């Protein structure tokens, strides 16, 4: 269908809403509390870290209902067109009985002061609905990593979650057909374009409509998941006069294997991409991608958004650069492709013209003899920004000769960047102690890192070299008989620290 719609529409619980004048950056948290009086959703950090504001966003994708926990504090209401939002107030069944998760929290004494409890409940309900989340201790920890309890009540909460995962159906299961029918009526295939005194919102229906809108409005701001842009609003108090929301453009939500590799469209979230990424990058998925934010953040934040914001400490780009990824750019009807490392020019500056946007990325499928590793080093294991992130790709011949080394770091320069001198020190050499020492020396010449609140320059340089030692211990000729000194060097990187 074609045409322009001048309002957004969605459900909160069972209540239908049409909004034609809302500010494009009005957060869902503020709107729920101040406009709807739904105060069970709490404001804690207001930056997507504590989970007290967690709500569920339900969408009909194809003919399947998909449930996602998101942080309402950095989710714009304007991004919810076509969705159904569920808050803690919706968790009781129509007969007034508690949801199985709520009952489990009562039975296992999972609430202390109670402030964080609604957010935990919402994450737990989403965890019951989500596919692919394990029910073991680690799966539950991953599920709840985005929710903080300052009363340190995690043990009973985890017990409650373990019990709730075994509970029977909830009242939403009985409502699934009605929910799907309700959301199906919101599909109209039209572009939303609404403007008012508080700003303009555009939701293009297609990628062609997006390209046309950006040509006419090159100063507008693209928003996919708002996990970064949301903080510009809540913490930076920035005004964004024209927001273009792209999260539901079907053309940008493609995940497919092409002859060139795995293609991820610009609106594919980290959570959606993880299974496909794990197929070709299993170790970085475990060590890096599962630690990008939390489930709430990965449900909203996109792989390409992590690239397009150009952060020098984004966790995705170093791994994708090491893997040889390319980025696809579009301006109007003109498309171009470039190596991902060439997209980053300087701090806050990318190779993107006015009106040009990231349409997707392609990650080549590694050859069978390629070793790809990535390690994130941060003060906390969960929910922390990297002090340094190292990613490594190389081919090892049967005789131990190294070829095609690609090494990239985040946190070591103004952009995610390759360690070219280190790659030269490795290329064509046998993987042995002498080569390792030459590579460790080269990495000191590759970077001149800064000292900041996350780490000193000395620490970053030391850890970068130690990550090379860890790579050697992990896949070098003596990997099966790693000496104690190497274990100590690897431990010194600090990337197993919890807390």
UniProtKB/TrEMBL annotation:
Keyword rRNA-binding: no
Matching InterPro entries: 2Fe-2S-bd, 2Fe-2S-bd_dom_sf, 2Fe-2S_ferredoxin-like_sf, 2Fe-2S_ferredoxin-type, 2Fe2S_fd_BS, Ald_Oxase/xanthine_DH-like, Beta-grasp_dom_sf, CO_DH_flav_C
Keywords, comma-separated and alphabetical: FAD, Flavoprotein, Iron, Metal-binding, Oxidoreductase
Pfam families: CO_deh_flav_C, FAD_binding_5, Fer2, Fer2_2
Superkingdom of the organism of origin: Bacteria
PROSITE patterns hit by this protein: 2FE2S_FER_1, 2FE2S_FER_2, FAD_PCMH
Entry's Gene Ontology molecular function annotations: 2 iron, 2 sulfur cluster binding; FAD binding; iron ion binding; xanthine dehydrogenase activity
NCBIfam families tied to this protein: xanthine_xdhA (TIGR02963)
Name of this protein: Xanthine dehydrogenase small subunit
High-level lineage: Bacteria, Pseudomonadati, Pseudomonadota, Alphaproteobacteria, Acetobacterales
């Amino acid at each position: 269908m074609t045409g322009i719609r001048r309002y957004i529409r969605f459900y909160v619980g069972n209540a239908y809403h049409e909004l034609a004048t809302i500010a494009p950056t009005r957060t869902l948290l503020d709107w729920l509390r101040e406009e709807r009086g739904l105060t069970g959703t709490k404001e804690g950090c207001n930056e997507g870290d504590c989970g007290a504001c967690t709500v569920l966003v339900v969408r009909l994708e194809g003919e399947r209902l998909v449930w996602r926990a998101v942080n309402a504090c950095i989710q714009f209401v304007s991004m919810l067109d076509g969705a159904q939002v569920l808050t803690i107030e919706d968790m009781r069944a129509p007969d007034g009985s508690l949801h199985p998760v709520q009952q489990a929290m009562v039975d296992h004494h999972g609430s202390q002061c109670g402030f964080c409890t609604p957010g935990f409940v919402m994450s737990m309900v989403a965890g019951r609905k989500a596919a692919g989340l394990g029910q073991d201790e680690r799966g539950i920890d991953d599920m709840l990593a985005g929710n903080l309890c300052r009363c340190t009540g995690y043990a009973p909460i985890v017990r409650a979650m373990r019990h709730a995962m075994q509970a029977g159906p909830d009242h939403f299961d009985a409502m699934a057909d009605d929910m799907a029918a309700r959301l199906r009526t919101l599909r109209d295939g039209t572009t939303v374009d609404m403007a008012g005194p508080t700003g303009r919102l555009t939701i293009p229906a297609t990628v062609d409509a997006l390209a046309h809108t950006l040509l006419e409005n090159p100063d507008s701001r693209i928003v996919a998941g708002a996990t970064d842009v949301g903080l510009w609003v809540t913490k930076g108090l920035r005004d964004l006069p024209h927001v273009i929301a792209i999260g539901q453009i079907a053309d940008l939500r493609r995940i497919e294997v092409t002859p060139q590799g795995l293609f991820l469209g610009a609106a594919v979230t980290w959570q959606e991409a993880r299974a496909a990424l794990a197929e070709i990058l299993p170790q970085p998925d475990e060590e890096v991608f599962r630690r990008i934010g939390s489930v709430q953040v990965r449900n909203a934040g996109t792989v390409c958004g992590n690239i397009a914001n150009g952060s020098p400490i984004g966790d995705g780009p170093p791994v994708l650069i090491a893997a040889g990824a390319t980025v696809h750019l579009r301006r109007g009807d003109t498309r171009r492709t470039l190596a991902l490392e060439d997209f980053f020019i300087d701090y806050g500056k990318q190779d993107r013209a006015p009106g040009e946007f990231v349409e997707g990325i392609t990650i080549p499928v590694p050859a069978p003899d390629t070793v790809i590793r990535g390690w994130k080093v941060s003060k906390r294991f969960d929910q922390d920004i990297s002090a340094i992130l190292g990613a490594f790709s190389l081919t090892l011949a049967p005789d131990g000769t190294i070829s095609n080394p690609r090494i990239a770091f985040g946190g070591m320069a103004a952009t995610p960047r390759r360690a070219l001198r280190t790659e030269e020190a490795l290329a064509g050499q046998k993987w042995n102690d002498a080569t390792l020492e030459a590579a460790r020396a080269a990495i000191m010449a590759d970077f001149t890192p800064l000292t900041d609140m996350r780490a000193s320059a000395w620490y970053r340089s030391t850890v970068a070299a130690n990550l090379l030692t860890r790579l050697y211990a992990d896949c070098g000729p003596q990997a099966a008989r790693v000496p104690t000194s190497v274990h100590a060097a690897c431990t010194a990187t600090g990337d197993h620290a919890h807390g």
